[in-house]
């Protein structure tokens, strides 16, 4: 730790709250860092929950023809495992980092719309609860995370299960969209002087791309869900077979959203890794421009490949050819990133701290997912692979090996910034190796069971089909994975209380967030820094590392804001009031608005019980409460 | 460029990178997202065009099983009128923004040009008139036997135009809110942004209608 | 040395995994997709081999480079600051172009294979309509006038062109050993074709539904019998006719192996009144895939439901089952307060009371049972069609197969779809009669 100059001048736990304590302060908070922390805790909870669902699935499939759970329970478990991991775990884990990091990385004091930010969180947590709780009553969604119509329409799924899913996703979409508008505005408009687009940290850049994916992809699923909701509640015929509907309408709308969604899940992890690798290699990112452009390219091409999820639906040879070629094309910018990361490490002084282990783990595992991805970009080959365990293996290498490894690395990396304490390195090492091995043990055999003919989403199978051993290995791996996650949970909880105290610059990194105390004060930056290059903190401490990249003179920039000063390490811990920095007021209105929104949807459920009056009372009442809260919110001052 | 704006509004406005207000950036992002929303709705309508098994149909006559003959259901002359009304509302919106931005400037004081209340009210009334036309259209369709449950055309038509109508309704409420602020304390050039973002939204809704009118009504 | 322990654990685990992997190698892979049994799979496997080769090369190179990098450039005490680099255009262009070249090497054969596999099937193909139902398969041979369920007969050496439709949700038709899958979608007709190699006469393959289609998605399987063209013709000619309706008529001329199977039920002399329906003597000789040639992996092993879903049946009654009485029951169980079998099923030659078939073939809601006794499996290929299983199925299909749309028929049985116990319906004796009847439908 020779590179970190500053030593902590105060004990973090006391300073962490900056006068804000108690549950009420969390409920009413509009501080992006506290909201980030809330996202982190909630999403980790859902991650564990989704993991336990996976555990049940693998227990059932460990041996042929088992009866651990019934077919119906199994179908709910795999539906909720997918839905939970995608919408309630990985996306919000990314959102935790968006919230916590984006303002810190661009030198801002908060996000553009702090209250909207709180609203996004509360909508997420209430929507997630709305969708998850029914599993305890055997009523959880059971149509798969992809919810293909017409299976999800009334004639084939008349229970409340699908209603929870349709409304839950609609609610979560509102949360994601609100957050995306917020972050786009934040990144476009709230960068510190001198923080040009091409100086933004790579994580912020990848997040920026993700926000565009969110605002452009979510409307498609919103509309698909609106149709389904109308079909189920109001008798429209969008997916009604008897009325001549085309079942592929849902699939197109869903995958126009669903494929960009894959990049929504992976790009933030790519961003985190692009922060971790340079720090622990003591070298700037190799080919920053290329990494950024390839990220944009991935986002752009991500909208042109959706139908590769549909090679088996019989689109015809022309469409298959077009989507096969665009899909192969998207492999190029992805591959480029891998090489740039390796080149970043090449010639460096690599320190294998826990974050770095996970970052390298991502490169190793994502590569496998990428290769199998190219394998099913070829439609004829995909006809043997799609809807088998081969695909399950593929996207778990992408989402677990990619997203989760990156996010876990990010948690180890930013834990000191968030809490002011390091996580235990010993337990981190254990966690990494057990996860890395268990992950491969779980998912690698699925390549085989898939190519040897095992379909996805089956709750049981006969012995002697050639799948027995592979399934048993996968299940053993899952058990191990659960244990390894337990190590992480213990580490996380213990280190919060008793981890080694971290200085400002916990790892010797180069970006702005490391120039302020750990944990940061509520106003983030006492003085807004003027940025002159891509690694402002390295400019200060390791000028030799940034000597080769473009700099601008600081004085040109200071004109824009009288309070801006050159980049420096902040060590003070004055309150915002002492510094004269206006802070947004705490408010409970976002929570009330969020609750009203969720109740509004829940009211509709009563329509299925033929209680039209109850449904309308709840829905219209909540809608009125929502609009009223919104008015009160918009007319009350922010700070 | 950025510095100029930042200096102009240095008192209560935070420094922003682009010099634009955050809300203006956000509304553009919002409109981008809305484009995809309507693109999905319009595509669905077009995909289902001609796929309905039973009538009524938009552009073709239809004989029901009971022998009743239906005319093509879309009434283009009437909808042309409502389209014109909505276009005019956009014009009024432009005038309203101009009036607020130029409050107190010579040539505006005391003239109709500078009367932002009039223009805001006019925009809202024209918007409401458009909604009236839509209500008339919907009821007459229902009388002719087309509801949201009848066929694929009915489902996709009512959902698409209904979504647009809901956007117009939200816009009218927004305009009325601005009008009430204007009446209460008077909108000044400092408030121009409030009118500006509403205008952006209103023009967007108008443009969407032009697309719907062309693709749904005019092209058979 | 806590740092070393995870690594030691790692090597131990890799050893265990290796041992298990070796164990897996000893297994048989009866559903492997890596076959050349059809023209279709030969094309795909060729493509796969290229994908695997290139994928392995990329894998070894990238992971090798990664491992080399992290070992070579790991931190050393006292080492100076690393030499700083920021990018290198030549390198970056290189690693953009190399993937493009690799992808082009995949793209060319891919496009070629797309157009080959999606070409129109040859005119001489045998046409098979595949209709997906929750959760069973209907197979129709329009050229032969044959309708059957869950068991697909194909002449080896002749291209089979499948026309795929669904009556409800989306399913997907897949026989891993013979060809790729194609989705089965309502309001949309899909096609897929393949030619089983002529050496396959006398083989059987497992088929699966591979699009999630609800509760019993896992229980929607089928079997493909590839038989010699001569056997196929015999099979088709026989299937086209109605079955011998009553055991009173001359016993169906079947192969001896199969006759034994139904002996217990069908050859018992009928003591009850003679069959009401006209006796029909099949003219065709008939063929069915010999049961003893079916390997273990093609015989369903679905266990009987247990616990509160257990279906109890007195198997001793099966020996007393009477096909003629059963024959009367299939059309008349309305008397027992339940829907007659013929409300949903078609049995050629059998009529509902009043002399009508409920619907034409296109309206069938349930498997066509005309030659039920020639099939070795039923209920989406998850049960062997033996008397004991069949009896329990008729008694409470909803317990036997999750979500089954065939309603619970046994009196006193709990019917999940009604959320109550039935107070009407069939008693075990009547079920035994129906079983005897079904097993006589050769």
Topology:
The complex is a heterotrimer of chains A (639), B (220) and C (442).
Chain A: H1 12-16, H2 23-27, H3 32-61, H4 71-106, H5 114-132, H6 161-189, H7 202-234, H8 248-281, H9 288-301, H10 317-345, H11 354-375, H12 379-385, H13 389-419, H14 425-451, H15 468-498, E1 529-530, H16 536-541, H17 543-546, H18 554-558, E2 565-566, H19 576-579, H20 589-604, H21 612-635
Parallel strand pairs in A: 1-2
Helix pairs in contact in A: 3-4, 3-5, 3-15, 4-5, 4-6, 4-8, 4-13, 5-6, 5-20, 6-7, 7-8, 7-9, 8-11, 8-13, 9-10, 10-11, 11-13, 11-14, 13-14, 14-15, 20-21
Chain B: H1 2-8, H2 22-48, E1 62-63, E2 69-70, H3 76-101, H4 116-143, H5 152-185, H6 192-218
Antiparallel strand pairs in B: 1-2
Chain C: H1 4-25, H2 39-72, H3 89-117, E1 126-133, E2 136-141, E3 146-149, E4 151-155, E5 160-166, E6 171-174, E7 182-184, E8 190-194, E9 203-209, E10 221-227, H4 229-240, H5 256-266, H6 323-332, E11 377-378, E12 383-384, H7 387-395, H8 397-400, E13 414-415, E14 420-421, H9 428-438
Parallel strand pairs in C: 1-5, 4-10
Antiparallel strand pairs in C: 1-2, 2-3, 5-8, 6-7, 6-9, 9-10, 11-12, 13-14
Helix pairs in contact in C: 2-3, 6-9, 7-9
Account of the protein in words:
The complex is a heterotrimer of chains A (639), B (220) and C (442). Chain A is mostly helical. In chain A, 64% of the residues lie in helices and 1% in strands. Chain A folds into two domains: 563 residues, Cytochrome C Oxidase, Chain A (Up-down Bundle), CATH 1.20.210; 44 residues. In chain A, helix 5 runs antiparallel to helix 6 and helix 5 packs parallel to helix 20. Chain A is globular and about 70 Å long. Chain B contains six helices and two strands; from the N terminus they run ααββαααα. Chain B has a two-stranded antiparallel sheet with strand order 1-2. The relative contact order of chain C is 0.11. In chain C, strand 11 and strand 12 form a beta hairpin. Chain C has 442 residues and is an alpha+beta fold. Classes of the chains: A mainly alpha (639), B mainly alpha (220), C alpha+beta (442). Chains A and C meet through helix 4, helix 9, helix 10, helix 11 and helix 12 of A and helix 1, helix 2, helix 3 and strand 9 of C.
Provide the descriptors you would attach to this structure in a database record.
heterotrimer; A: 639 residues; mainly alpha; Cytochrome C Oxidase, Chain A; 21 helices; 64% helix; globular; C: 442 residues; alpha+beta; Immunoglobulin-like; Cytochrome Bc1 Complex, Chain D, domain 2; five-stranded mixed beta sheet; 32% helix
């Amino acid at each position: 730790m020779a590179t970190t100059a500053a030593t902590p001048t105060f004990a973090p736990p006391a300073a962490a709250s900056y006068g804000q304590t108690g549950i009420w302060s969390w409920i009413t908070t509009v501080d992006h860092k506290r909201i980030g922390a809330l996202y982190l805790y909630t999403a980790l909870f859902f991650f564990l929950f989704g993991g336990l669902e996976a555990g049940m699935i693998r227990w059932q499939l460990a041996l042929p023809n088992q009866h651990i759970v019934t077919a119906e329970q199994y179908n709910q478990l795999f539906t909720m495992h997918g839905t939970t991991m995608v919408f309630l775990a990985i996306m919000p884990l990314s959102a935790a980092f968006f919230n916590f990091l984006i303002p810190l990385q661009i030198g801002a004091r908060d996000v553009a719309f702090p209250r909207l930010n709180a609203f996004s969180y509360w909508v997420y947590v209430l929507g997630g609860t709305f969708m998850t709780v029914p599993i305890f009553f055997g009523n959880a969604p059971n149509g798969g995370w992809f919810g293909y119509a017409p299976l999800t329409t009334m004639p084939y799924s008349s229970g409340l299960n699908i209603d929870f899913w349709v409304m839950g996703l609609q609610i979560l979409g509102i949360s994601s969209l609100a957050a995306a508008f917020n972050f786009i505005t934040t990144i476009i408009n709230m960068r510190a002087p001198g923080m040009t687009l091409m100086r933004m940290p790579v994580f912020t850049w990848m997040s920026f791309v993700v926000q565009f994916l969110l605002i452009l992809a979510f409307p498609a699923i919103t509309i698909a869900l609106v149709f389904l909701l109308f079909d189920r509640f109001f008798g429209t015929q969008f997916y009604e077979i008897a009325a001549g509907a085309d079942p592929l309408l849902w699939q197109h709308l869903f995958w126009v959203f669903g494929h960009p969604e894959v990049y929504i899940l992976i790009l933030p992890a790519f961003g985190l890794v692009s922060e971790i690798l340079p720090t622990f290699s003591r070298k700037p990112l190799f080919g920053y421009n290329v990494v950024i452009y390839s990220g944009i390219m991935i986002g752009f091409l991500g909208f042109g490949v959706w139908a590769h999820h549909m090679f088996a639906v019989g689109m015809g040879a022309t469409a298959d050819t077009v989507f096969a070629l665009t899909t192969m094309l998207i492999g190029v910018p992805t591959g480029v990133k891998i090489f740039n990361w390796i080149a970043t490490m090449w010639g460096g002084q690599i320190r294998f701290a826990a974050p770095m282990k996970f970052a390298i783990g991502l490169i190793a595992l994502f590569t496998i997912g990428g290769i199998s991805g190219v394998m099913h970009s070829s439609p004829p080959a995909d006809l043997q692979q799609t809807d088998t365990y081969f695909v399950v293996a593929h996207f778990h290498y992408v989402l677990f090996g990619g997203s989760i490894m990156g996010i876990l690395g990010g948690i180890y990396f930013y834990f000191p910034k968030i809490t002011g304490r390091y996580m235990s390195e010993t337990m981190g090492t254990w966690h990494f190796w057990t996860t890395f091995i268990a992950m491969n043990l779980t998912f690698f055999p699925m390549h085989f069971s898939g190519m040897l003919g095992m379909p996805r989403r089956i709750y049981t199978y006969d012995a002697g089909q050639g799948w027995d051993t592979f399934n048993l290995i996968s299940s053993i791996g899952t058990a191990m994975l659960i244990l390894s996650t337990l190590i992480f949970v213990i580490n996380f909880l213990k280190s919060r209380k008793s981890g080694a105290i971290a200085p400002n610059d916990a790892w010797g990194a180069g970006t702005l967030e490391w120039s302020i105390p750990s944990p940061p004060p509520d106003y983030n930056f006492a003085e807004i820094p003027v940025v002159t290059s891509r690694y402002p903190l390295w400019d200060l401490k390791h000028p030799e590392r940034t000597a080769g990249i473009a700099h601008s003179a600081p004085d040109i920039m200071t004109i824009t804001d009288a309070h801006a000063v050159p980049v420096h390490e902040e060590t003070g811990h004055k309150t915002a009031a002492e510094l004269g920095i206006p802070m947004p007021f705490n408010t409970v209105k976002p929570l009330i608005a969020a609750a009203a929104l969720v109740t509004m949807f829940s009211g509709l459920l009563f329509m299925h019980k033929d209680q039209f009056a109850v449904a309308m009372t709840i829905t219209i009442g909540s809608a009125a409460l929502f609009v009223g809260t919104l008015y009160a919110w918009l007319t009350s001052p922010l700070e | 460029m950025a510095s100029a704006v930042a200096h102009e509004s240095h008192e209560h406005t935070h420094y922003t990178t682009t010099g634009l207000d955050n809300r203006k950036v956000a509304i553009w992002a919002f409109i981008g997202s809305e484009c995809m929303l309507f693109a999905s709705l319009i595509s669905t309508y077009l995909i289902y065009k001609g796929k309905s098994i039973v009538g009524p149909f938009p552009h073709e006559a239809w004989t029901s099983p009971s022998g009743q003959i239906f005319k093509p259901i879309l009434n283009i002359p009437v909808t042309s009128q409502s389209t014109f009304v909505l276009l005019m509302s956009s014009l009024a919106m432009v005038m309203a923004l101009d009036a607020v931005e130029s409050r107190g400037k010579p040539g505006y004081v005391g003239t109709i040009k500078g009367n932002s209340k009039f223009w805001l009210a006019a925009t809202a009334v024209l918007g409401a008139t458009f909604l009236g036309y839509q209500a008339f259209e919907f009821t007459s369709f229902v009388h002719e036997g087309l509801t949201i449950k009848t066929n694929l055309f009915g489902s996709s038509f009512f959902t698409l135009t209904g979504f647009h109508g809901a956007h117009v309704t939200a816009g009218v409420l927004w305009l009325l809110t601005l009008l009430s602020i204007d009446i209460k304390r008077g909108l000044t050039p400092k408030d121009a942004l409030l009118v500006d973002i509403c205008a952006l939204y209103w023009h967007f809704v108008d443009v969407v209608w032009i697309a719907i009118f062309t693709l749904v009504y005019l092209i058979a | 040395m806590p740092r070393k322990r995870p690594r030691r654990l790692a090597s131990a685990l890799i050893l265990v995994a290796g041992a298990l992997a070796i164990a897996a190698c000893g297994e048989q892979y009866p559903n492997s997709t890596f076959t050349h049994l059809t023209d279709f799979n030969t094309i795909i496997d060729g493509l796969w081999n290229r994908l695997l080769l290139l994928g392995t090369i990329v894998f070894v190179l990238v992971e090798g480079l990664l491992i080399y990098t992290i070992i070579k450039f790991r931190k050393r005490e006292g080492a100076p600051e690393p030499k700083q680099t920021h990018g290198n255009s030549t390198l970056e262009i290189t690693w953009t172009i190399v993937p493009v070249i690799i992808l082009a090497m995949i793209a060319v054969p891919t496009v070629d294979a797309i157009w080959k596999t999606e070409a129109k099937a040859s005119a001489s193909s045998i046409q098979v309509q595949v209709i997906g139902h929750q959760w069973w398969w209907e197979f129709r041979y329009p050229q032969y006038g044959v309708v059957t369920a869950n068991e697909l007969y194909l002449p080896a050496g002749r291209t089979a062109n499948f026309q795929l439709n669904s009556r409800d949700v989306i399913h997907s038709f897949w026989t891993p050993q013979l060809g790729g899958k194609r989705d089965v979608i309502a309001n949309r007709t899909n096609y897929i074709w393949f030619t089983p190699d002529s050496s396959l006469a006398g083989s059987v393959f497992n088929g699966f539904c591979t699009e999630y289609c609800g509760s019993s998605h896992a229980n929607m399987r089928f079997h493909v019998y590839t038989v010699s063209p001569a056997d196929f013709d015999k099979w088709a000619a026989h299937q086209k006719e109605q079955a011998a309706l009553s055991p009173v008529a001359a016993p169906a001329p079947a192969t001896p192996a199969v006759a034994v199977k139904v002996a217990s039920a069908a050859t018992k002399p009928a003591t009850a009144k003679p069959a009401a329906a006209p006796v029909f003597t099949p003219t065709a000789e008939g063929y069915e895939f010999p049961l003893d040639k079916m390997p273990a992996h093609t015989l369903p092993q679905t266990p009987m439901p247990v616990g509160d879903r257990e279906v109890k049946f007195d198997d001793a009654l099966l020996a007393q089952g009477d096909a003629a009485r059963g024959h009367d029951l299939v059309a008349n169980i309305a008397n027992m307060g339940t829907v007659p079998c013929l409300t949903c099923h078609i049995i050629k030659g059998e009529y509902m009371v009043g002399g009508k078939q409920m619907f034409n073939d296109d309206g069938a809601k349930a498997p066509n049972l005309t030659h039920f006794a020639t099939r070795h499996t039923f209920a989406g290929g998850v049960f062997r069609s033996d008397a004991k299983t069949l009896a329990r199925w008729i008694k409470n299909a909803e317990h036997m197969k999750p979500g089954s749309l065939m309603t619970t028929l046994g009196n006193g049985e709990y019917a999940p779809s009604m959320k109550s116990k039935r107070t009407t319906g069939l008693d075990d004796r009547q079920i035994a009669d129906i079983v005897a009847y079904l097993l006589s439908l050769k």
